[in-house]
Design goal:
Number of helices: 14
Radius of gyration: 22 Å
Order of helices and strands: HHHHHHHEEHHHHHHH
Oligomer: single chain
Distance between the termini: 41 Å
Strand order of the largest sheet: 1-2
Structural class: mainly alpha
């Protein structure tokens, strides 16, 4: 049966659209990182069968979430061409403040709000110094990393907080509990990733973030409130770091001044491996989540395979270099 000319044209359009979607998927960094995760999982599963057990998969799902939450917040910061290496210290400060205020008997809801505001305040200071004083983001957040870590030591006096008073049961249930069989923190990652991706792709704020990262001078000339938008990205990252502290302290059952130490490198690595461009202009929250999964899979696989954990940084570094090279390759073909 011969098709009418119009039907043939429609088939051509649909086939072209399907090929375009397939090509887009094959060009996406997220797709290749997922492939890498599956290959690593299969290889390590053959070397160390414990890797593929349900208990270990649950362990990976729980552990990657803390990095993923902050990586989702880091995505718009990097998309504007910025960076924040103080997130690990902010995680430590908000975590110990959470423990201390819970132990002092304040209502849990009040403490949660306070912790989120402290995280956002650190982000606002970072963003204001970067935006209004035109200071380099790396230098600003490097200074903030030292300042906040020092304040964490001051407020805890090097003591571990493990008695959370009346709020203890709620905090532990939030961090260690689950809903419909899924850990609460994983629900937080799913909701945060969906909301952040909607903000980045469907709202004026998201268009401004991409425009600033693409060409900041052009964005200023076109009337975009560049400084306010950049401050908002740092504030959002700070608040999400505070939220991460709530889940992490609830899961660990203790707040120490070492909380978050070295975490900033994992967060930045996860965001970049997931496709965010360090020069700004591009990034996705879903990519940040996938990058976090890859880092946790590498960490877990090395541990189970009996490899010296000092090699973890080597593998993560190689994947960062691979991600940057892949992004350069994609850009050259665009």
């Amino acid at each position: 049966m011969n098709k009418s000319p119009d039907a043939s044209n429609l088939d051509s359009v649909f086939n072209l659209s399907e090929r375009s979607k397939l090509g887009e998927m094959l060009r996406s960094q997220e797709f290749w990182i997922v492939i890498a995760v599956l290959i690593i999982g299969a290889v390590v599963g053959m070397i160390a069968p414990r890797f593929l057990t349900g208990a270990n998969m649950a362990n990976i799902l729980q552990n990657f979430c803390f990095t993923a939450l902050m990586a989702i917040g880091m995505t718009p910061v990097i998309m504007t061409g910025g960076i924040d290496i103080s997130v690990g210290s902010t995680l430590g400060l908000t975590g110990v403040l959470l423990g201390l205020f819970c132990a002092s008997g304040y209502p849990f809801a009040v403490v949660v709000l306070f912790v989120l505001l402290v995280g956002a305040f650190v982000g606002i200071v970072n963003g204001a110094l970067v935006s209004y004083l035109k200071l380099p983001p790396f230098i600003v957040t490097l200074g903030m990393m030292s300042l906040v870590r020092s304040q964490t030591l001051v407020v805890t006096n090097n003591q571990v907080v493990y008695d959370f008073g009346r709020a203890g049961d709620t905090l532990l249930a939030l961090g260690s509990g689950s809903f419909l069989g899924v850990p609460n923190v994983l629900w937080a990652v799913i909701v945060s990733a969906v909301v952040m991706q909607w903000l980045l792709s469907m709202t004026r704020w998201g268009r401004y973030v991409r425009a600033i990262g693409g060409n900041e001078n052009a964005a200023r000339l076109s009337g975009i409130p560049v400084d306010r938008v950049k401050v908002s990205t740092y504030a959002l990252l700070g608040a999400m770091t505070g939220m991460t502290a709530i889940f992490l302290v609830g899961w660990m059952g203790a707040a120490t001044n070492a909380l978050g130490q070295g975490q900033e490198l994992q967060v930045i690595a996860a965001t970049v491996i997931g496709g965010a461009n360090l020069l700004g202009g591009f990034g996705t929250s879903f990519g940040a989540v996938i990058g976090s999964v890859l880092i946790e899979v590498i960490r877990n696989a090395l541990l189970l395979a009996g490899v010296n954990p000092f090699w973890q940084g080597t593998f993560v570094g190689l994947f960062i270099l691979f991600a940057v090279l892949l992004e350069r390759f994609r850009s050259s073909r665009a």
